[in-house]
Amino acid sequence: MSPAVMTTSSESEFFPIFESLRTAPTGPDAKAAADKLALAVSKAGIESLLDQNVITTLQNFAQNKKSGWERESGAVAFQSLPAVLGPPIAPALLPSLPVLFELLSDKGEVVRTAALAATKAIFQLLPPEATRTVFRILEDILEKGKWQTKVGALDALKSFVARAKDSVADELGHILPKVEAAMHDTKKEVASAAVKCATSLCTTLANPDLAPHIPVLVKCMSNPDAVPACIKALSSTTFVAEVTAPALAVLVPLLLRALNDRSMEVQRRTVVVIDNLVKLVRNPVVAARYLSPLVMGVEKIAQGAAFPEVRAFGETALDTLLKAGASTSGTPPARDISGEIADIVATLLTLLPTDLVIPSASGPNGPPSARHPLLDQSLQFQGSMVADLVYNRRFRDTEVWKRCVGVYMTSWLGAEGSATFAESARAHFHAIDQENNKSTRSEHNGEGELLCDSLFSLAYGALLLLSHTTLRLYRGRRYGILGTNGSGKSTLMRQLRDGKVENFPPQDQLRCVMVEHSLQGEDTSVSVLDFVAADNALAKIPRSKIRDQLLEVGFDDARQADVVGGLSGGWKMKLELARAMLYNADLLLLDEPTNHLDRASVLWLEKYLIAHKNVTCLIISHDSGFLDNVTTDIIHYESKKLVYYPGNLSSFVEKHPEAKSYYTLAATSVKFSFPSPGSLMGVRSNTRAILKMSNCTFTYPGRSQPSLINVSCALSLSSRVGVIGPNGAGKSTLIKLLTGETVPQEGTVYKHPALRVGYVSQHATHHIERHLEKTPIGYIQWRFQDGHDRELLEKATRVLTDEEKALLDQDWVGRNGTKRKLELIMGRQKLKKTFQYEIKWRGLDHKFNSWVPRDDLMTKGFGKLVQQFDDLESSREGAGTRDTSALLVRKHLEDIGLDGDIAQYNEISGLSGGQKIKLVIAACLWNNPQVCILDEPSNFLDREALGGLAVAIKEWAGAVVIISHNHEFVSALCPEIWQVEAGRMTHQGKAAVVEDAFADMKSPKGSGANTPARSRVQSPAVSTHGTPVVSGTEDATGLKVPLKKKKKLTRNQMKAQEERRRLRKLAWLTHGGPRPEDTDSDVDP
After folding, report:
1. How many C-beta atoms surround the C-beta of residue 650 within 10 A?
2. Distance CA 788, CA 983 (A)
3. 727 pLDDT higher than 80
4. Helices and strands (H and E) in the chain: how many
5. Among 327, 391, 593, 997, which one is least packed by beta carbons within 10 Å?
6. CB atoms within 10 A of CB 816
7. Pairing of strands 691-698, 708-715
8. Starting from the edge strand earliest in sequence, which strands make up the sheet with 708-715, in order?
9. What is the spatial distance between Cα 999 and Cα 1010, in angstroms, rounded to a whole number?
């Protein structure tokens, strides 16, 4: 290297050091010379970096294309300076970063290694608050450098994630577009590094709901084809945290692409997600900055989308965007960071000692300037960080001000002076901020210990449930949560359980336990005691304590030894309660705790909760009596806010009379509409038995005691039956036998061959648990797409056993001695008082099909095959005439109380418990059943929905069987009660059944006159005292001769009749005698 290139004078004390550094033959020699240089700078003062041209000389070494040694020596020196001089030197070294990153593309590996070490050494000096300044430098390097330099810059960006997470998140809006551009670089190394960098940068999002979607979000940046799948995932995500600027920086580019997608479904999902996101952005400045680019795309969809519903969603999203502050003229001006830095540097200069500044030449009041260029450079660097501190109003953390200001002034003011300067700067800007933002804050004063006071928002996908509301709970209080189905009560509970509610204390600070119906997904093949002991969270609890707790909730030693899977719904809920009580919770979340509990158990639960004064309870329940007795406060969902009312449910209703529906079933604004039941072939009276059990006994596998003993009962079209009894008495087992879910070991179950039964089980989700990815409309379309109910074939009583399959191989001997084998049943028609079936014979053409009476088939052992065909045929009669188009299915679901948009667009997995039960009820009513059986319908429906269901049942013309512990609900609807206790059943109230199902069957085909609705008017329900019609007294007097009904004459018959009459009259006029009668007799004269 020529002396002309070396900018330091030969007389300078630094000249020999530079010379030894330049000529160092090995790496250790270069390191020794570099350390010597750093010590010389430390001794001479930081000003020597500029006065002695140290920085310039080292840059010249690093840029010497002819000498690899010099390039390595320059990089090694840039590594030694930070190590020896520390943070104060960082502002002076930042301008050298482009030179060092350029060395990453050097051919010599030692040079690249030294350059990489130098950049890491410089970055180690920087606090997190310097991220923005460094990123601006790295962005420029990423844009202009060679491919190796770009990879190095991307890796450097990624390195800031671990130590400056929040600061990196604030910069996502600026840096991600640069990184996204690098994803499309022609060099695959750069593209790969950019994907890794973007993935790492996105992990800094302060929104935990987006964390699972980071890979697909990054994939959308590099591959636009992934946008539809990502939008679908976002639309089914429960957002519970505030959507901040970093989250919008990632999402807005994705949403802009989705708005331009050609698919109407993608457009619809996008505008709905946009509408939801805007409601979750609290800062209007952030909303205006990031959401304004979306206005044009949303406006285009609102005005020009092909589907009216998409246009409607677009109009809603556009209105929300504009209300939030988004501008139609584009993005508002960004922060004037340069101006902020200039003002702050000017202020810092006024706080410096006079010996470090130069007074203004314009006068004593003019702005001073720094005495040394390096000091000015340092103040500019400090001003960049202080600008962010002031903007974010971070004045209380003195340590931040020390590391952003004080550290970099130690070389100019000393340790004590730099600390004083940092504090004076903080106090100065804090005083200005207080003056500009005068505000008073009122503190909430409540009774007792405050457990939490959390401000949060809650949404499920596109549905905003709660917006910027506060959850404030005190120890020992019992809060009842009131709101309609789908308002988000259970969602709030689940998010609290999972720790996903923003600002809610973590589990180590506030022990929060949820009690819900969750046993279905766990191992239920073990005993009750082992089931609880196997809980990992209770590993340290001795079995004796677990046993005592189970005894407390009613599990004696014998029942503790029972298998969990054999417990009834009520006992399973008690088991959940016992397990939750062992957690010693501060906050107990009870979601429908009284479901499946009999009255005695509910009273026990009330006393237990009231007795525990140190446990706070959040309770969701549709049992108004339970809520009234237990709650001390009511939390009510009002306009997406949580509103608090002291007192129990009675006090709340006094203040809000419109909430009377929480007490009475009739006071409801929810209207359900059930479809009319279809006619039942051959049944002309609504008092004839159409479904009955005779002397049935049933024992569950593995049990020694039967659940039902010698039970007999019957249903008619006019039946309104309430099934009551304690937990585990056998109520649900009785219904399962009636509906064909299970088969009795003794006794018979008879069902009218054409009867359709709609059944909603106690655990209603079992109907839909395999279809959680479908929408409600999609589920009903799948279930009835073939014109019949596809779930009928899954009943245990309709699945052929191996023995029954073997019967199909037996020969059927005909009257003429021919042998045939039955293949399948193809049709059914009326035969006197029963049916006959069209049989397709194995190996023979259809023209050889035969009609075989039902009794013959039953006698030969084909009963299950006949019942299977009867089920399908009756289902076809009801569902086969119904169109499963989306519009009609949506209307049907809306009639049962399910929101149309939720039914059409939301997956079943995201529905609330009440919404799922409405879907199951709607599905069971789709094929127009004559009997509807509801097992605990009140478990998941709120008071308003329960009132709507009660009104619909009263107005419905079919038969209804209800199992419920809700005495008000049962007594209001059911005059006939089946009391089940200890496996035995007793009848109470008024029965509406006459045994013979076919006593007056006359019509070969059903007619409109046979519908339950009409027959109910024609034939009133039988009373407890037998009437002459049903008492059998007509048998004593003999049979009545049936009257022959006149037949309507044909046109030709009428002409012949008129001709006969004319001839009779003519004969009388001719021959005389008595005048003949003008009758309809066909006898000729």
Report:
1. 13
2. 35
3. no
4. 44, 24
5. 391
6. 5
7. antiparallel
8. 708-715, 691-698, 746-751
9. 14
Are the C-beta atoms of residues 931 and 758 closer than 8 Å to each other? yes
Structure tokens at 482: 């009131």
Residue 976 has pLDDT above 70, yes or no: yes
Helices 913-924 and 886-895: crossing angle, nearest 10°? 110
Give the pLDDT score at 1.
39
Residue where the block lists tokens 């969603």:
313
The answer to whether the predicted template modeling score (pTM) of the entire model surpasses 0.85 is no
Residue among 690, 693, 670 nearest 680 (CA): 690
At 593, is the secondary structure helix, strand, or coil?
Answer: coil
DSSP per-residue string spanning 1021-1070: PP-SSPPTTTSSGGGTS-PPPPPPPPPPPPHHHHHHHHHHHHHHHHHHHH
Beta strand 757-760 with 931-935 is: parallel
Cα separation, 739 vs 867, in Å, equals: 12
**3-class DSSP state of 116:** helix
Q: Which of 581, 495, 573 is nearest to 538 (CA)?
A: 581
Element (H, E) at 656: none
Q: Cα(153)–Cα(165) distance, rounded to whole angstroms? A: 18
Cβ distance 210 to 250 under 8 Å?
yes
User: Measured between alpha carbons, how far is 561 from 812 in angstroms, rounded to an integer?
Assistant: 51
Question: Under DSSP, is residue 792 helix (H, G, I), strand (E, B) or coil?
Answer: helix
- SS3 call for 852: strand
Cα dihedral angle (631, 632, 636, 641), rounded to 10 degrees? -140
Q: Tokens in use for 212?
A: 């699972």
Q: By three-state DSSP, how is residue 127 classified?
A: coil
Q: Where are the alpha helices (DSSP H) in 707-822?
A: 731-739, 776-783, 802-807
Count of C-beta atoms within a 10 Å radius of residue 704: 6
What SS3 class is residue 749?
Answer: strand
Residues written for the chain = 1085
CA separation for the pair 165, 425 (Å, rounded)? 26
Q: Could you tell me the CA-to-CA distances from 910 to 170, 462, 773 in Å, in that order?
A: 32, 11, 9
Tens of pLDDT, residue by residue over 88-112, are: 888 989 999 999 999 888 888 888 8
Burial per residue of 2-25, b for 16 or more beta-carbon CB atoms within 10 angstroms, e otherwise: eeeebebeeeeebbebbbbbbebe
pLDDT tens track for 523-538:
566 788 888 888 777 7
Whole-angstrom Cα Rg for the chain:
42
68-85 and 15-22 helices, crossing angle to 10°: 130
Record the tokens describing residue 426, joined without a space: 């903080």
**The tokens 């446990």 sit on which residue?**
615
The mean pLDDT of the chain is: 79
At 812, list the tokens: 């059927």
